[in-house]
Amino acid sequence: MYLDIKTVNVVTALIVSLLLVTWLGLFSYSAVPVSALDAIVGIWSPSADVIAHVIVQDIRLPRVLEAALVGASLSCAGALMQGLTRNPLASPSVFGVNAGAALGIALATTVFSSNIISSPIAAMIGGFAAWVLVMVLGGAWKMGAERGQLVLAGIAISALCGALTKASVILVEEQAASVMVWLAGSFAHVSWDTWAWSWPSLFAALILSLLLAPKVNLLAMGDERVKSLGVNLNLLRAAIALAVLVLVGVSVSSVGAIAFVGLIVPHIGRLLVGYDYRILLPVSMLLGAVLTIGADILSRAVVFPTETPAGAVLAIIGAPCFLYLVRQKQ
């Protein structure tokens, strides 16, 4: 794989940006004052007697790491969905995967009280069911099907899942407050426990995505051409779907419904490095990590010291971008 100077410069700039926003995320807008130096010392040689070091080590560091991982995961999932469906508007939020995952967790939390099924599994089941409905209703695999049908089907399924989620919350009022906070999408309650159970599956799904990248490139040539090259199309679709469901399901179950990251970031990545998924996927991961950490910092800044959900900040950024993309594709 050949990397030109432009690509190397883009990757270098993104790595530097990621390190910068990570550092800012460790000390910015803290109710208890934390200095920029505390952010560094709190990682390398923290003192249990210094409250600023404890905040950095036990509160801010897992929060920043989880924000970066979730951003990378959702961006990667969006890029894979766009490659799989050959639809530039595809993303977990637009195609109902986020909403289905949220419904699965809401049902597991309120109706079943998480005794029967764990939240990540419930999220993956809900996301899978929503995605299948969207693909069937939108005629995804029919020759000559309108790409706009998938978007309309995704909007309809998202609305249905959202209504069912709200209904489940209303029916079980004692769980309503915690579920509604979670549905807004926030990194405020992330802890080392959250990081411990989420990173292994997300890392595995990201690695699988990178391994699939060369074959995702082939999907742009059309189904018949891909089959003529000896690629098992059904197996490839299943592997991509599995990666997407793990990336979205675990992300949603850990921090809530974070929208538009998977839609916006792959488009920015294509503007920067082109359409080769071997390069686009890692660049999208870096971009997504920078975006979500930045949104988390903004969420603390809006009405400091009170926190605004990061999901709301990303929605404010993403909604106009979605409208712009729709107009561009008309």
UniProtKB/TrEMBL annotation:
Gene3D superfamilies with a match to the protein in the record: ABC transporter involved in vitamin B12 uptake, BtuC
Origin superkingdom: Bacteria
Keyword terms of this UniProt record: Cell membrane, Membrane, Transmembrane, Transmembrane helix, Transport
InterPro entries: ABC_BtuC-like, ABC_transptr_permease_BtuC
Keyword Transport among record annotations: yes
Membrane topology reported for the UniProt record: Multi-pass membrane protein
Transmembrane intervals: 93-113, 119-138, 150-171, 277-298, 310-326
Location in the cell: Cell membrane
Any one Pfam family match given in the protein's UniProt record, by short name: FecCD
Family: Belongs to the binding-protein-dependent transport system permease family. FecCD subfamily.
Name this protein carries in UniProt: Iron-dicitrate transporter permease subunit
The species this protein was found in: Vibrio diazotrophicus
Gene of this entry: fecC
